[in-house]
Design brief:
Layout: E1 4-9, H1 17-32, E2 36-40, H2 50-55, H3 60-77, E3 82-86, E4 90-92, E5 106-116, E6 122-136, H4 141-154, H5 167-177, E7 181-182, E8 185-187, H6 190-198, H7 202-210, E9 217-219, E10 228-229, E11 232-233, H8 236-249
Parallel strand pairs: 1-2, 1-3, 5-7, 8-9
Antiparallel strand pairs: 3-6, 4-9, 5-6, 10-11
Length: about 260
């Protein structure tokens, strides 16, 4: 019987309530499928090469973009047949619908980002993300991504976008090599989260129109905490209320 290992990481406790909720949803999903589960704390950063860490300029997101890949490779080398990475702020709100296709030797998540353009109109940007990743033993994709991530960051001479080694790099490569995509593993922008809470809205409608398959899990973008995006303040109340609505009534929202 093949062994699938689910990996997660977050800062040391105490965790924000929404992180507790999201991690619990992943643990429950892993147990449902009889997957092994492992949580790694801040020590995940110890996996980074010194030059890479130096070139991150203290940016935690950039550090973990490589650290997760190195951790996944380590666990595959240790005997896992498949490793699945799920960010700590990903909520699996429809566990019965969230399935990792066993025919795929690697896969990435789907980013549909709804935000306003310069003219104030709602625009949908379709990319991929690394909040959910899956790699089987023997796939060449993992070593390829590790190499590409190291090259991008270790060549930096000044701080760059926090997404440079994550969604930006992955989406650029995806445009060229077409990674298999887990459409069910989505991402919701602050404007869509606000519309979920309000019960309706144009941003939510654009999100629904852009979907290719029903969403079963979503990155709630905890990394934006404290920011204001499209007029929406990202705070723990926004994230917690959104998580509660998704868990209770995702189907009625059309996601």
């Amino acid at each position: 019987m093949s062994r699938t290992l689910v990996l997660q990481s977050f800062h040391a406790r105490p965790w924000p309530g929404v992180i507790e909720t999201c991690i619990a949803s992943t643990r429950s999903w892993a147990a449902r499928h009889k997957y092994a589960y492992e949580f790694v704390g801040d020590e995940i950063i110890d996996l980074l090469p010194p030059l890479y860490r130096e070139k991150c300029f203290g940016r935690w997101l950039v550090m973990t973009d490589l650290a997760r890949l190195l951790l996944m490779r380590d666990r595959l080398d240790a005997g896992a047949d498949r490793v699945v990475w799920i960010d700590a702020d990903v909520l699996i709100f429809a566990p019965a619908l969230f399935v990792i296709d066993p025919s795929l030797d690697h896969a990435v998540g789907r980013e549909v980002w709804v935000s306003r353009d310069d003219a104030g109109r709602w625009r949908v940007r379709r990319h991929v993300h690394n909040a959910v990743l899956s790699f089987d033993a023997g796939t060449p994709a993992l070593d390829f991504l590790i190499h590409a991530t190291r090259r991008v960051v270790e060549r930096l001479e000044r701080p760059a976008s926090p997404q440079i080694a994550g969604p930006k790099l992955l989406s650029t490569l995806h445009n060229l090599v077409a990674f298999p995509v887990l459409e069910e593993a989505g991402m919701l922008s602050p404007a869509v989260l606000a519309d979920l809470i309000a019960g309706d809205g144009l941003a939510l409608h654009r999100q629904i129109q852009a979907r290719r398959k029903p969403m079963a899990a979503a990155n709630l973008c905890h990394s934006l905490l404290g920011a204001t995006v499209d007029g929406v303040g990202v705070d723990n109340v926004l994230l917690a209320e959104s998580a509660a609505i998704l868990t209770k009534d995702f189907a009625a929202r059309g996601l």
